[in-house]
Amino acid sequence: MRVKMILPALTEATSPLFRPIKYSLFPPLGLATLAGYLGPDDEVSITDEHVDKVDTADEPDLVVIQVYITSARRAYELADLYRARGAYVCLGGLHVTSLPDEAAQHADSIFCGPGEDIWPAFLADFRAGQPAPRYTSKTRTLVDLPPIRRDLIKRHLYLVPNSIVVSRGCPHVCDFCYKEAFFEGGKSFYTQSVDAALAEIDRLPGRHLYFLDDHLFGNARFAKALFEGMRGMGRLWQAAGTVKAVLQPGLLEQAVAAGLRSLFVGFETVNAANLTEQRKWQNIDRDYGAVVRRLRDHGVMINGSFVFGMDSDDASVFDRTVEWAVRQGIETATFHILTPYPGTRLYQRMAAAKRLLHSDWDLYDTRHVVFEPAGMSARELETGYWNAYRDFYRWGSILRGAKTKPTSRGKLRHAAYAAGWKKFEPLWDLVIRAKRAGQALPLLETVLSWPGADRLPVAGRDGLRRGAGPVAPAGRPHARV
User: Are strands 167-169 and 189-191 parallel, antiparallel or unpaired?
Assistant: First the structure.
């Protein structure tokens, strides 16, 4: 059987206005995982349209397309093309699960939810000549997961080829997140066995890893056992976690001992009222300043995530957020415009209040305003978002952030990481067009490997104190950040 798997390019990734390096980071691990269920006699290929062109001159028997909201238009275009040629087309992913009836118009079979139970069931039905039009996941387990087909991944095309996922979902229930819709009907957070996760890590060459788990620290017992097993491997790794996990005694220390060097942290907002509105319970009454201090003291760089446009935000939120992040010495920041994805509680609330502006999925990219904001105009929100990126990544802001580090090496690492990520767009573009993104990995490893434990004396921590972060101890909005 000839099987073609495709990850269509996100709409924003095809625009000359957006950053090519962001879309050349990670290979399509989900498709490579599904490929592991195919037989030895099956001919299978994976095409990631972010880094390679889709060859539509071939004649596969089965086409499998993973669909995100801003790749839906392109995914349907490819699906329609291959169906017209007689191929059997399957669609799955976040957008398909959220809007199955829409997706079903462009597919022979659709998959709703995670694929570990429904993909093998489909393959059995397909080989028997009796595939169903829809498969919905109910059984949630990563037991006996076959080895990921990493041989199908073109490693040289990615800056971070060693991506890995050892869990599914997240234990939290934020209103703006797809998770609840995607995992509806079964467990919404579960992990591999520690032994299986360690075995997968052992398969990966080199030193660097990037855990793409929504929340690697979500099961503390699993995380501690994983980190203990990773000690001595000599790995350098990055991951995502919550402010609550960072503050948990002992957990961060074990992660650092196992090689953690950079963490994506969902701060999300400097306005405490927004946290309750969006059911971001894990952030309420947490001292953001203490989170930054703990990570800095352990040499862990921070990629802070912030969302603009929640109902308690006004036009001052952009400057206040940027100023707080720069003053805290956060190395990199990722900003988003609040986006009500179909299937989320946020979308339901916005639809019920008639605040949605349209259903052009190409614009549901966290860069465009697709709803009526409460505290500012749509134009103010979109302009403020772009200005936040401009202001945070000014050379002056990068150098101010670097100065918060007490050692020369810490200052240099901050400046190198922040500037390398955002200030050398033409160079990254040349590297990616030459299909040599993987050759930049040693540079990333070098920066991550610099000793960066910037321990500060208690009295000299940049004027920070417990409760001085964006959320005060009583959970009230901080006056001005």
Answer: antiparallel
